[in-house]
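Quick check before the chapter quiz. The format below is the same one you will see on the exam, so make sure you can read both the input and the output lines.
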Amino acid sequence: MRTVITLLRIGLSAGRATPGDRLRWWVLLAATATVAFVAVATTGAVATYEGREARSDARGVVLAEGKDAPLLYRPGGDSVGGNPVSVVFVHPMTEDAPVPAGVRRWPEPGEVLLSPELVRTGREEGILTRYGTFSGTVRPDGLASPSERIAYVRVASLPSNHADWLPVADFGGRGGATGEMRYQWPLNSTLLVLWALAGVPALALAVVAARVGSRSRDRRSGLLQALGGVWWHRAVVNLGEAVFPAALGAALALVPYTIAARWNLRLPPTGYLLNHRDLWERWPAAAATAAGALTLVLAIVVGTHRVHADGTSTRPASAASRVPRWRLVACGAGAGLVVMSQYAPRGTQLAIYCCGTVTMWAFLSSVVAVLTRRLGARLADSGKRAGHPGRLIGGRWTHAHPGVIVRLALAMVIGVGILTQMQIWTSRLGEQTQAVRATQERVKDTVTEIIVPAMTAAETDRFRAALPPGTALLTHTVDDLGHQEDPRVSIAGTCRDLRVVHIGCQGDAAHGNIQAQEMRRWYGTNLTFTPVPQVTVKPGGTQTLVVVMPEPGHLWAVKQAAYTLPTPAVQVNGLGGVWETTERARLVNWIRLFGGTGLFFVLLAGAVSSAAEFVRVRHVLAPLSVLTGNLRVFRSVTIWHLTVPMLIATVVTTVVTAWHAVFFIALVKAGTVSWTLLGAAAAVCAVTSIAVGLLAARAAVRAADQWVPTAD
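Here is the expected output.
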């Protein structure tokens, strides 16, 4: 124990006395905070999923077995501000009809209960009167999350045709998922995206932080070995040097979790509100996770400072002196997984692809280091033959210290990869959403599609009377559904209705206004306009209503008229709007959240790597001014040692990322590659490579003016 205490004191003293110690202290703090933050976020995600499922089960319906059910129940859908809304229509058959969690009692006929978030976001769209008379809000224990948009509507009277309503005996089962639970992605998919986009950059930052200012620690490790120390002696010293900033970083990671556990926190840009009660119940698990992240970072610190095990040399065996072969094998294995993912079973292709991607990104910089090490040897030989001191010294440094290039290239490799994947996922998930928004720019909200079970001519006439004046009421019919790839589609309406969209009574599809053109764009080129004496909707699910208004701004009136129909189980969407209100479109915001966090970690790792090189170059290059008699050698050395290898890493990264992106698009058969964005990212990396070399040279010049010989 006395030896352990002594070694810990040596480590603590070393952390305050070695070159670059202040930079490493802050970097270790930041790195541990980022790793712990992702780990704690994982705990928060698990807690949120468990809380959502528990509240969803509490309001899940239990179906009645007999004909006499105390409650009739039918789920529906709507949208507010492009976000999905779950609308539940109910009709109590008895006075003591059961109520779900979050509801004290059913409102009176024609009244509605709304979630607080639906009231907040839908007030300007007339949500308080859309389904009936507003009578109160749903309590938090009946919501999957505070940001859920859900409405319980008690119909004024039971429709004559209510055979498709669910007979409910009680609540508290697992049936009838409503609200957010209809679009919930699996927990493992969420955690996979979180760790792929944010966890890998956090671990990369931890590796960079562990090796900042490593020259003095490597020499100390060699000295301890020469004095007879074994691996655990060196580990205790390294732990003593890193434990305090790492522990402080782990504690800082718990601050945002604590805030979210006390108050409902909204996550930009998703708009999702976390339930603080879920996080508070998991606070001990979050603290344990932060402690585990601290242990992981300290293990990285110890593992990246090793010496030769054979005892033949006191030179440390670290990434600064060689690139282990297993890293190259791991990079090849990751690329192999990416290639082989196309041959895997359908349900596992994406998971295998993501695992291969993470592995390839993590070890691609080691491949770059091997290439630059060989390049360094050739540069040194070329500089020796040409009598070029800068090329000679820079080449030898590059050959002897490939780990430097690993750390500098790591930020570029992961950063460009994350940026490209974010762009592809955004394009893949947002293609239809972008098309919807383009349509809305052209026709605004003047074209609306209403899915209704059936409507007689008299019912459509009553519905037409509730619409704004001059509105056209059409039917959209799909023939031969499921029998051919391009089924026949027709839009039918009276002559007066067809004139609203500039279609003649003969149903000439060659003409029409912008609204008719947009309908043809969404319903297919095999679209015909057909005049009919009356508008009706036949049962069977092949017909829907299409409402065309002469002026925008009246969508709220259409929805209010639709949801107060005697048959309230309707769905109202803008033209193509079903794509905009799906959780598939919302997933883009989650990818931006995780990817943006990861990019921040990558930028931090790049800045740390650059700063560490400035510290190292400043101390090591300063004596060259005495040997060469000029200061120009600094710029030459840093260009050949830092800029040239980083430019090569940029080229390799860009080529591999382009291949990786094209392969992903071919795998999922969706999305596009933005070559402009990839080119811009490569240009930024190239400019950064030049700037790092020039700034390192400037730091060396400033240090040379103050350099004096010191004892070793």
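If your answer matched, good. The chain has a mean pLDDT of 82.
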